[in-house]
Specification:
With 199 residues, this protein is α+β, with helices and mostly antiparallel strands. The protein has 2 domains: 81 residues, Orthogonal Bundle (Ribosomal Protein S4 Delta 41, Chain A, domain 1), CATH 1.10.1050; 85 residues, Structural Genomics Hypothetical 15.5 Kd Protein In mrcA-pckA Intergenic Region, Chain A (Roll). 43% of the residues lie in helices and 9% in strands. It is built from 9 helices and 5 strands. It has a 5-stranded antiparallel beta sheet, covered by helices on one side. It starts with 7 loop residues before the first helix and ends with a helix. The relative contact order is 0.13. The mean pLDDT is 89.
Amino acid sequence: MARYTGPKTRIARKFRDPIFGADKSYDKKAYPPGQHGANRRKKQSEYGIQLMEKQKAKYTYGILERQFRKLFDKASRKGGVTGEVLLQLIESRLDNVVYRLGIAKTRSQARQLVSHRHITVNGSVVNIPSYLLREGDSVGVRERSKSLEVVNDALASRVSYSWLDWDNAKMEGKFNNYPQRADIPENINEQAIVELYSK
C-alpha cells in the first residue's frame, strides 16, 4: 500500500486525537467517522488498543509498515527502554527533524523538501526522508533554496525544541542529541506498540 494521501481529518477522527495539528473540521466532529460514528459504543479489545496506537504513530510520522517494523527491530536491539528508543529513532529521521526545526509547516511538506533536494546534512544534499541523523549532525537549507517562500513562511512561525539548535543567519540547525520521552510532544502510548510487536 502506498502512502496515505486522503482526508486527514477523517484519520484524526478515527484516533479521536488531532494528530495532524489544529483542525477546525475535527473540532466540529470529534467522534469517529462513518454513519454510526457518534453513537458507536463498541468496547475495544487489548489487541485493538495496541493496534490503534501503532497506526496512530505511523500516520502521525508518515511511516509505512515495513519502515516502522525495521525501526522497531533496531530499537529492540539497542539498550534502554524499547518504546522510548523507538520514538527517539523516529524523531531522528531527516523529514521529522526538518519539520521540528521549523523549515516546513508539516511533516509531509518536510518530506517533499527533502525528496526535492532542498535540504543538506553536514553540507551535502540528502534526498532520503528516512535518513537517520546522528548526534552532532547539522541540517540546513541548500544555498539556492534559501529564498523559497515556503521555507521562509514556515520559519516565521517556528517552535524551538531542547534537542535542536537553529542558526537563523545560516539557515542551519544542529541535531544535538536524541530527545527524552518527556520532551516529545506526540500523544503516543509507545508501550502498547512494544506489547503488540512482542506477541
